[in-house]
Amino acid sequence: MTLRRRLLIAAACAFAASMPAAAQISFTTAIDLALKNSPRVQGAQAEIDRARAALDQTKDVYVPSLSIGSGLGYTYGFPFGAPSLFNVSSQSLLFDQSQKNYVRAARAGLESANHHLSQIREEVMGDAATTYITLDADLERIGAAREESGFADSLTQIVEQRLGAGQDTQMELTRSQLTAANLRLRKIQLEDDADNQRDHLSRLIGLPFNDITTIHSSIPMLKDFDGTPPKETVLPESIRAAYSDAEAKQQSAFGDDRKIFRPQIGLGIQYSRLASFNNYQDYYRAGSFTNYNNLQVGLQFTLPIFDMTKRAKARESLADARRSLHDADQARSQFFEGRHKLNNAVRELQARAEVASLQRELAQNQVDVVRVQAQTNAGAAPVTPKDEQNAHIQERARYLDYLDADLQLRQTEIDLLRLNGNLESWLKSTTLEKENLPTR
Cβ(99)–Cβ(58) under 8 Å? Predict the structure, then answer.
C-alpha cells in the first residue's frame, strides 16, 4: 500500500469520526429517557423526600431525645449548682392537641407532593410525546415539501421553455417562480422546525446527538375518541395537589388556633454523675455527698392563657388556608372549562383531518386522470406537461394539508389525555400491547 493511499484512508477515517452521530430513538425509549433525565421530575421527587421528612419530624416529637454532656468546673466559695463528670438527659412531648393537626397537615403536604410528582411526570411525558410526534411529522412533511418544490422547479422550467416558444407570458413565468419560491420557503420553515424539535427532544432525553431521527412504526395509535366528556368527579393531579395543599394549610391553621387554652405536657429525665473534687464538704452537712449519683424525673405542664402573638398567627394561618381553598376551587373551574373546550376541539380536528384526507385522495385521483390523459391524448383539450406538474403540486399540497391536520389532531388528543390523567396509563397499555404481540 502506497503512502498516498494510506494518507487518504486516514483522512477518510478522521472525516467519518468528525461527522455528527446519528441515532434512531423509538417512541417509548424517548419517553423513558425524558422521565429519567428530567430535572423537574427529580426536583418533584426531592420535594416528596422533604415532605416525608417533615411528616416524620411532626411525629418524632413524641420520641424521647437523648443527649450526653458534662459540667466540670471548680468553685471558690459557696458552690452554686453541682458540677458533673457527665450527664445523660432525655426529653419528649407527651401531649399537645395542636401537634395532631400538625401531623395531619404534614400528611396532607406529602399527598400534595405525590400529586405534584404525578402531574410533573405527565407533563414531561406529554412534552416528549408531542415533540417526538411533531419531529416525525416534520420529517415526513419535509419529504413531501421537497417533492412539491421539485415539481415547482420543473414547472418553472416548462414555463420558461413555453415563454421562449411564445406559448406563455412573462406574468405566467413570474407566477410559477413565485410558487416555487413560496414552496422553498415552506420547506425551509419545516426544516427549521424539525431542527428545533430535534434540539428540544435531545435536551429532554439527555442524549447529545446532533441528528436524532424517529422510528415512525414505534408511534402507537391513539384510541378512538368518542367525544363523551369525562365526569367532573375525575380531577387531574394538579387540582388534587391544590386541594391537598389547601388541606395542609387548614390543618396547620387548626393547630395554631389550638395553641391557646390547650394544655401541653412534656417529659424530662436526667441522670448526672457528680464530681467529688469540689469544696462542697466545706459548706454542706457531712455525709451529704457520699452518693455522687443524681437522677431527676419530671413532667412539664403548660397552659397558655394569653398570647396575642399566637392569636394573630392563628388568624393569619386561617386566612391563608381559606385563600388556598378558593384558589383550588378557581383552578378546578378553569380546568373543567378548558377541558370542555379541548374536548370540542378534538371533534373539530377529527372532521378537519377527514376533510383533508378526502381532498388529498381527490387530488391523487386528479393526478392519475391527468397522467392517463397525457399518455392517451384523451379528453377535449390536450394535457400539457405544465398541467401535469400543476396536478402534482396540488396533490403534494393537499397531502401536506392532511399531515398538518393529522398532527394537530394527535397533539390535541395527547393534551386531552394529559388533562384527563390518562396519558401514563395509555403509554403503559400501548407498551404492554407491543410486548404481547406474537413474534414472527
Answer: yes
- The whole-angstrom distance between residue 350's C-alpha and the CA centroid of its chain comes to 27
Phi, psi (deg, nearest 5) at residue 384: -95, 160
Render pLDDT for 24-76 as a digit per residue (tens, 0 to 9).
Answer: 889 999 999 999 999 999 999 999 999 999 999 999 999 999 999 887 766 77
User: Closest Cα partner for 388 from 409, 403, 367?
Assistant: 367
Amino acid at 297: V
| 3-class SS of residue 47 | helix
User: What are the CA-CA distances from residue 128 to residues 206, 339, 345, 430 (Å)?
Assistant: 12, 21, 22, 16
Closest by CA to 336, choosing from 228, 424, 231, 415, is 231
This prediction's pTM: 0.80
Counting other chains too, the contacts that 392-397 makes at CB distance below 8 Å and 24 or more residues apart are 392/147, 392/148, 392/151, 392/367, 393/148, 393/151, 393/152, 393/155, 393/179, 393/183, 394/363, 394/366, 395/360, 395/363, 395/364, 395/366, 395/367, 396/144, 396/145, 396/147, 396/148, 396/151, 397/148, 397/363
Mean of pLDDT values over 209-227: 78
**Cα-Cα end-to-end distance for the chain:** 47
- CA dist 268 → 100, 194, 297, 419 (Å): 21, 69, 6, 53
> How many other C-beta atoms lie within 10 A of the C-beta of residue 386?
18
Q: What is the layout of strands, in order, in the sheet containing 293-302?
A: 65-69, 84-96, 264-274, 293-302
Grid cell 396536478 is found at 391
For residue 222, report the phi and psi dihedrals to the nearest 5 degrees.
-75, 145
Short-list 298, 266, 261, 128, CA closest to 201: 128
| Domains, the chain, ordered by start | 27-429 (1.20.1600.10)
Q: Rounded to an integer, what distance in angstroms lies between the CA atom of residue 201 and that of residue 128?
A: 7
Q: What is the pLDDT of residues 219-261, one digit of tens each?
A: 888 776 665 666 666 788 889 999 999 999 999 999 999 888 8
